[in-house]
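Weekly modeling sync, notes
Attendees: S.R. (lead), two postdocs, one rotation student

Agenda item 3: backlog of single-chain predictions. S.R. asked that every request posted to the team notebook include the full sequence so nobody has to chase files. The rotation student volunteered to paste the first one in as an example of the format we agreed on. Action items at the bottom.

Example entry:
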Amino acid sequence: MNGETVRDATPDSISQLQARLRDFAQARDWEKHHTPRNLAALVASEAGELLALFRWGQDAVGTRLGDVRQEMADVFLGILRFADVANIDLLDAAEEKLCLNAEKYPPRKASRP
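Predicted structure, as returned to the notebook:
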């Protein structure tokens, strides 16, 4: 990442998006449904919808980019909401995971993902 950390490369808008999602859920009285289990299921189901766009080798990026964008946004927003409810700093978690992956897969061993 050329010396940049995840936090350096990511705008402060993540916390703003989480606040908007929190307000959205509160305004609809959905917070009682936003348990870690339910939010994990939400992320999994939205990721499944994204994957379904690529069924049978379809080039959904080339033919259905709008749908791909919407499903990616659903996954991203679900993860943001889950992190907010679970009090997980996603930027710290991502930075930690990148460091762990760098140790686990040094360049000389990283012939395949």
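Discussion: group reviewed the output briefly. The first helix runs from residue 6 to 9.
Action items: rotation student to repeat for the remaining queue; S.R. to check formatting next week.
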